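User: Sequence in, structure out. Go.
Assistant: Echoing your sequence, followed by the structure tokens.
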Amino acid sequence: IIKEYTEVRNRGYDLMLAVDVSRSMLALDFKYNDHPVNRLAVVKGVLDQFISKRTGDRVGLILFGDGAYVQSPLTSDGNIVRNMLKNTIPRVAGDGTAIGDAIGLAVKKLRHRPAGSRILILLTDGENTSGSLAPLDATMLAKQYNIRIYTIGVGSEGEVPFPGENGKTTLEKMELDEDLLKNIAHKTNGVYHRATDTEALENIYKKINSLEKTEAETKSVMIPQSIYRWPLSLTLLCLLIIAGLSLGRGGKW
């Protein structure tokens, strides 16, 4: 039977991560132990640490390139999101950068979550070059549903090292629409950050980790209580009484 219930309140955020996985995330303008690494590898490493510290938060993952796709819905099990992110590769969603679609999809997944806890962290290294929804139109939807957007511009501008088809590193010109990312953050009461190296990216996540948590979810947990002990005890008592009466009369058990 269900005898009683207890109410569990979680303090935290509904936190959606939107990660750019376009071709430009292959650029080799970051270093780890003095060795060049691509942008996505660095983002994955820092995000892994970030997610591991999200105690009490529900975290989801959106990947975007030519379009935007939910890789993991909001979940309190951060290990699921970490594993999904670990297996992510550049260009898995195409070569373009659909910033507007990524924001729109995040709004769809966050809009019915408790007010005050809806946050989107958008990481991109480029300009909006693809998708069906304009970034500022998507931003207005986010504002309508009180979703704060923290935008992060990843990597350097200008000519950056890039892996060539033959294995040789070449230089390619990269552009980052900082004005757009600043505008998106400003309109939703979020903040824009620029990450040009590993340390800068880590510092950005430390700032986000320090944000005040809000009560984001209340749920009731029903506590089942087994009652088999009572009829079992009564049955054993009856058997003992019968056995006692039988022995008292000289009978056999």
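User: And one key feature?
Assistant: The mean pLDDT is 84.
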